[in-house]
């Protein structure tokens, strides 16, 4: 069906183009899947980005996708397009391992809602993306599956926790990937590897997952998720282009009231509106690396060229405060899991947590009181209102992804001081989940042959506006920005 041109192998194409070509019968889903499998075979042994790749299972899905095309069936928006799913997300018949040997046999009986949405949209589930143990760190290594490398530079993190997703995208293994984000786990890996990452508004993409049962004297009961997981965590897409991220986000969006924050219907958005962009270069807590400032300048210039009005805000205290509240609420909830992590976690996750808690203690004390914890939740509501009032109906924020470029591998294990530096640098990553707003990480510049992304933040359920602005940056960046890391870096 497809005459292969070595200069345009199918793995190089985006999800939007592949879905259109499969629908038009210009290529087959089997050909596309095989091309991606070939790319995985060529690059994954070095990068270790995808685990549990089952070629025959993927090709069987692709054959059924081609049969549906031939039968004239109604086709979903991602019909025949390969996608990866994350090892902390339930996929029927695969382990939800969290990178922990003790959970290696924890096979999911059903799909999480976001995976079911991708399957319903016609996607071919091609492999599982690696992550740190318990998906906690901004580095993607674990005892069960090993370390994932950054395709641009193996000495640097590919990001975490969706580091396998970002690394595989940057290497061309799949055109799109599923990830999740509670403290930057979609946006930061996208920034480390030069791809696009979307953190949706809380509730837009269902976070429902098959409940994990725990034994009690009264019998098995569902494991309750802590408040921060319910209120901060989201599922979302990563992709090599804004168009592909937009297509995947729409496919993943389903009304699902099983999610405590789920919404049955989404409000209409206004693509093209929101022409005012406030550049928040820093919040006064940490100095930006020159490469970060350069990317912000480039992105602001691109947006101005696209007709956006740019203003620069000298700090934004509410974002700084939101980042501090994140470290209070998330760590105190995470404290409840420490006995389990001590029992089954690997040495790296235990040490990372030890240093992270020590860094947080410098802000909140060794053991914050219940009054302090409740006060953090109360303050969160006021901060949400303040940010929504600031954004109004027409404003977006342009921020760094991090004050530093991609961290050196295992930087969080060096010392308490370095762990505190990482948390300070990640204020754009940690402020957003506390508030529940959407954000997009998009490539803006290549500095010293490494990608540097910027972040766009918008009002709740205004993802289309954010993606329009991200598209404006990509349109003006892409002529000199490679869609995948150079093969010379993968040797």
From TrEMBL:
PROSITE patterns found in the cross-reference section: AMIDASES
Species assigned in the record: Streptomyces spongiae
Record's protein name: Amidase
Any matching Pfam family: Amidase
Any GO MF annotation of the entry: catalytic activity
InterPro entries in the cross-refs: Amidase (IPR000120), Amidase_CS (IPR020556), Amidase_dom (IPR023631), AS_sf (IPR036928)
Family the UniProt entry places it in: Belongs to the amidase family.
Span of domain Amidase: 31-467
């Amino acid at each position: 069906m497809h005459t292969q041109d070595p200069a345009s192998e199918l793995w190089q194409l985006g999800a939007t183009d592949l879905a259109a070509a499969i629908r038009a019968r210009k290529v087959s889903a089997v050909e596309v899947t095989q091309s991606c499998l070939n790319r995985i075979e060529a690059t994954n042994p070095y990068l270790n980005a995808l685990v549990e790749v089952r070629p025959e299972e993927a090709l069987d899905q692709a054959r059924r996708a081609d049969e549906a095309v031939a039968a004239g069936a109604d086709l979903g928006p991602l019909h025949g397009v390969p996608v990866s799913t994350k090892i902390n997300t339930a996929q029927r018949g695969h382990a939800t391992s969290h990178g922990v040997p003790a959970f290696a046999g924890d096979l999911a009986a059903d799909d999480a809602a976001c995976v079911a949405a991708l399957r319903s949209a016609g996607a071919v589930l091609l492999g599982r993306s690696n992550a740190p143990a318990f998906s906690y760190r901004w580095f993607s290594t674990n005892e069960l599956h090993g370390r994932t490398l950054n395709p641009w530079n193996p000495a640097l993190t590919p990001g975490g926790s969706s580091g396998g997703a970002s690394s595989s995208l940057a290497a061309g293994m799949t055109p799109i990937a599923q990830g999740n984000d509670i403290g930057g786990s979609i946006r930061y890996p996208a920034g480390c590897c030069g791809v696009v990452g979307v953190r949706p508004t809380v509730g837009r993409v269902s976070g429902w997952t098959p409940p994990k049962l725990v034994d009690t004297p009264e019998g098995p009961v569902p494991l309750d998720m802590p408040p921060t997981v319910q209120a901060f965590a989201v599922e979302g897409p990563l992709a090599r282009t804004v168009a592909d991220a937009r297509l995947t986000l729409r496919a993943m969006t389903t009304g699902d009231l099983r999610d405590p924050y789920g919404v049955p219907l989404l409000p209409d958005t206004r693509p093209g509106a929101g022409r005012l962009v406030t550049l928040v270069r820093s919040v006064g807590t940490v100095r930006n690396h020159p490469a970060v400032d350069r990317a912000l300048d480039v992105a602001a210039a691109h947006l101005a060229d696209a007709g956006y009005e740019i203003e620069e805000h000298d700090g934004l205290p509410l974002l700084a405060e939101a980042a501090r509240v994140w470290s209070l609420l998330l760590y105190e909830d995470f404290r409840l899991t420490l006995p389990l992590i001590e029992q089954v976690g690997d040495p790296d996750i235990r040490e990372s947590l030890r240093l992270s808690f020590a860094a947080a203690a410098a802000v909140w004390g060794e053991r914050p009181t219940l009054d302090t914890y409740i006060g953090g939740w109360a303050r969160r509501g006021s901060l949400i209102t303040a940010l929504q009032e600031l954004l109004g109906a027409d404003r977006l924020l342009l921020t760094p992804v991090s004050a530093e470029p991609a961290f050196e591998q295992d930087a969080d294990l060096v010392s308490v001081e370095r762990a505190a530096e990482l948390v300070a640098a990640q204020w754009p990553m940690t402020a957003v989940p506390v508030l529940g707003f959407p954000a997009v990480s998009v490539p803006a510049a290549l500095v010293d042959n490494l990608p540097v992304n910027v972040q766009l933040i918008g009002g709740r359920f205004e993802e289309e506006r954010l993606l329009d602005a991200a598209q404006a940056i990509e349109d003006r960046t892409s002529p000199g920005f490679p869609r995948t890391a150079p093969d010379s870096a993968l040797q």
